[in-house]
Amino acid sequence: MTNVINWFEIPAIDFARAMKFYSDVLQVEMEEMPSPDGKMKYGNFPYKPDGSVVSGGIVKKEGFVPTTEGPIIYFNGGDDLDIPLSRVEGAGGRITMPKTPIEKMFMAEFIDTEGNRMRFHSMK
Fold it and tell me: What are the sequence ranges of the domains in the chain?
């Protein structure tokens, strides 16, 4: 097993707003997936079908509720965590913990546009 985590899903209230937030902050192209039953909206982060990259999606569906409690997803902050963190507030999110050293690494916490608590992690 190469990764303990295989997939994650982030609940959204406003699907389009959430898709735009993560596209803007992470500078990635999100892909909306069709819903077989029409009862949900789903957007994928970039992934590789062979499973070599851990990825996930944005989900708008009954029973999927944004929260600041529970598990936290750490997004890759890239070569310098300051770069994606600088996009959070402009995209509609809120920084709740600034860039903070943890041993020889860094992390920061933010609340996305939907009310989910997330973090960045980086070596710089």
Answer: 7-122
Is the Cβ–Cβ distance between 95 and 81 less than 8 Å? no
What per-residue string of b and e applies to 23-36 under the rule 16 or more CB within 10 Å gives b?
bbbbeeebeeeeee
* Closest to 8 in 3D by CA, of 118, 106, 121, 123: 118
pTM confidence score: 0.93
Q: How many CA atoms lie within 13 A of 57 on its CB side?
A: 14
CB-based burial label for 57 (10 Å; 0-12, 13-18, 19+): buried
For residue 98, which amino acid is it? P
Question: What pLDDT, in 10s, does the model give residues 43-86?
Answer: 999 988 877 788 999 999 999 999 999 999 999 999 999 999 99
Third-level CATH fold of 7-122:
2,3-Dihydroxybiphenyl 1,2-Dioxygenase; domain 1 (3.10.180)
